[in-house]
UniProtKB/TrEMBL annotation:
Name of this chain's protein: 6-bladed beta-propeller
Keywords noted in UniProt: Glycoprotein, Signal
Species assigned in the record: Luteolibacter pohnpeiensis
Cellular component terms (Gene Ontology): extracellular region
Top-level taxonomic group: Bacteria
PANTHER family: PEPTIDYL-GLYCINE ALPHA-AMIDATING MONOOXYGENASE, SMP-30_GLUCONOLACTONASE_LRE-LIKE REGION DOMAIN-CONTAINING PROTEIN
InterPro entries (alphabetical): 6-blade_b-propeller_TolB-like (IPR011042), TAT_signal (IPR006311)
Amino acid sequence: MNTCDRREFLISLSTALAGLGLASAQSQNPEVGAVVLGQGKYQWKAIPGWGVLDEKTPVRDCHAMVQVKDGRIFLLTNHTQNNVIIYDKSGKLLGKWGTEYPGAHGFTLAVEDGKELFYLTDHARHQFYKVTLDGKVLRTWNYPEESGKYESPDQFNPTHVALVPDGGFIVADGYGKNWCHRYDAEGNYLKSFGGNQPDGANLDCAHGAWVDTRGGKNRVWVTSRNESCLKRYTLDGDLVDVIHLPGAKPNFIVPFGEFSIIPHLEGNAGAEGKPKNGFVSILGPDDQIVSNLGAPLPVSVDGKMATMGADTPLFTYPHGLLIDDEKSIYIAQWNSGNTYPIKLERV
């Protein structure tokens, strides 16, 4: 991003913040005295200019963000000049690595034998990897030929890896055939679910996944983005239930204590003439939305949730999301004009 692009981004962000006049999307917090995003107890405010760097450290699509134990924040972008950019919480550049991942997409932090590492997916290379924090590749997986779901490697376009409590993992083929493939702790293929299964157990853009261990149930949450819903399965791949999010395009699931945070790539899906800006939902322990950042709370029409959509231009296509150890939210955006992530501070 050149100086002009950075300046335009900062101006557009400041303009968006100044123009947040719709009470349904945000409220005035009397203790803070600033316009904030969200409703009720779950409100955040944007910090203009966080993490904006120069042309020596460009981004293309910003897909995911992770915070490691020592507090550093890692951003994954598909710009092959620097696939991974490392920040501190103030947005200062600490380092960067990676030039070989044109389809860098999913980024999952794991701890194995006491050491932190990443699972990284690349849908353009039809592979996923286990890598160290400084980018050394420890293992590479190609398409799961043994699953019998693929005729060629290029049909496998993985978007995310979710960790399983037994040390194994699940890889979501969100841009391919929409199967979720489970592997054991040694990295061996076990089984598949989702895909084109009947009776609602299918997935349509199985973009992000997460294994919820809260309450000891071990439910696998998967975003079925094109169906505007989250689907939950057992670890054996049996469909348990569906959380409908009309109009939204959920991308990932990020735990926040007993709550869950969902970045939506777009809103107002299928509503002609309405903005497609994305937004962020905070789901409570009962799976009901308690706050929408950048959008009104959902309303009910004839007993059903009405179509949701943003009413602020702040977000473009929210893709990946991190909530750090200070409860600040960082939003990595896809197709946003090569702009850096947006940081939101809790208020």
